[in-house]
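Closing statement on the AHE sub-project.
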Amino acid sequence: MIKSRAAVAFAPNEPLKIVEVDVAPPQAGEVLVRIVASGVCHTDAYTLSGQDSEGVFPCILGHEGGGIVEAVGEGVTSVKVGDHVIPLYTAECRECKFCKSGKTNLCSSVRTTQGKGLMPDGTSRFSYNGEPVYHYMGCSTFSEYTVLPEVSVAVIPKEAPLEKVCLLGCGVTTGIGAVLNTAKVEAGATVAIFGLGGIGLAAIIGAKMAGASRIIAVDINPSKFAIAEELGATDFVNPKEHEKPIQEVIVDMTDGGVDYSFECVGNVQLMRAALECCHKGWGESTIIGVAPAGAEISTRPFQLVTGRVWRGSAFGGVKGRTELPSYVAKAQTGEIPLDTFITHTMGLERINEAFDLMHEGKSIRTVIHF
Ligand code: NAD
Ligand code: AHE
Ligand code: ZN
């Protein structure tokens, strides 16, 4: 057992508490990682809000981290002590039906226990005062030390600054990957991006990389438009400034609708708008935002009959162990400008401020340093 400073979510809607938890050693096929830095993603706030059907409390949130391997369990071969890693909430075992399909990044190897806040053997490595504390999304990066399955870490070059490339553990990779891997936006296409947080802004980078001719940035918080423009957005729409439904505004702006849209908020009404602003015959909308458990999407089936396509994307369709090193390389050359996303940095003891800044719309990403 080692001691680890961690931000524990003891119950939904309560501030995280910084306490010293006990961390059990990595078991067979597992690794112990010292977290150097972690971003705070809206999904952490979503789970803390109690709306996640997989939220188990008490737990250690956080899934956008970077760290260094401190110990490995029996039989671990692909990672060694001292390796720099990014934890993966979408594992990549390379052996399951999903990994072998070539059609998805949704590996099934550890997903069932991960959704219950447990390691693959059905137990937790974290405890506090002798009581179990649950894992989160297979990562729990709001802890100085965490334990992960070997298949849930991507090894990256030691030169890459962990306090920046941690953002590739979720938000930045998700937005870029959704555009390039899931939607496969082509050069010259028109794109609308709903929601300009870490995910939507990364989707703008993806659209720019793809050579989109027009990138329409949509947000109800106009303070997000400046960064969107810096990253390549060409048009800016604040739904609050329009009487008409926002899908109609975009259809009017684009001679019948966009080729691709992305919902990066988690609002089911906006998901409908994102689908319905797509062009008849070929427009494709990708849902990235996570809606509350129980929420449902709706539209007239006629929207699909007339050629629009509705898709979804998890972690941008990216297979982490194989593909994250190339994202890190692009961050190293500046092609993925991570600095633009990091609006705030702070120590773990201030982590609740990071959630406040997100809810107030004042941050893109806060990076927590350990
Ligand atoms: P964020 O809070 O940083 O950004 C959300 C943005 O949406 C804000 O700028 C906000 O002003 C804007 N917004 C809110 N309501 C709006 C509306 N009605 N119309 C237009 N804009 C609106 O969040 P984030 O970290 O960028 O995450 C965005 C969503 O993506 C969340 O639902 C998160 O859970 C989800 N997510 C999904 C994946 C995945 O793999 N599918 C990965 C990461 C995050
Ligand atoms: N537990 C949630 C599911 C939330 C969800 O959809 N998560 C995304 C990643 S969000 C990262 O910020 C995802 O990858 N989904 C695919 C998967 O396997 O979880 C709920 O609502 O039940
Ligand atoms: Zn996330």
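The longest helix spans residues 320-333. With this model delivered, the sub-project is considered complete and its resources will be redirected to Aim 3.
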